[in-house]
Amino acid sequence: xxxxxxxxxxxxxxxxxxxxxxxxxxxxxxxxxxxxxxxxxxxxxxxxxxxxxxxxxxxxxxxxxxxxxxxxxxxxxxxxxxxxxxxxxxxxxxxxxxxxxxxxxxxxxxxxxxxxxxxxxxx
Length: 123
Prior knowledge:
- This protein is mainly β.
- It has strands at about 5, 10-15, 20-25, 35-40, 45-50, 60, 70-75, 80-85, 90-100, 110-115, 115-120.
- The strands form two sheets. Strands 2, 4, 5, 6, 9, 10 and 11 form a seven-stranded mixed β-sheet that branches.
- The termini are far apart.
């Protein structure tokens, strides 16, 4: 069983930056692909970014490509999401998730989820 805890959310002005962290415990972190998803009020959960188990591959949603960067530190059991040039439409609860068997942008394949951290971008 893997436990995931996100941190780093908050209120930021448009154009600003935030770095989200997701600390994992209780499993072999380095064997999981890790993803970030987000959910805005009244909307479905959507894919943001994914990183492979060793950090060698990353993929992003078109809406964040060039602005967000996903990375991981397997020695610290932590995955990060650096968010730059934030826009009001990035406002959402951000979730990290772990996938044992897939490198995927589909939330249905993920096995473990954190509780989420709120990101609010003001205009």
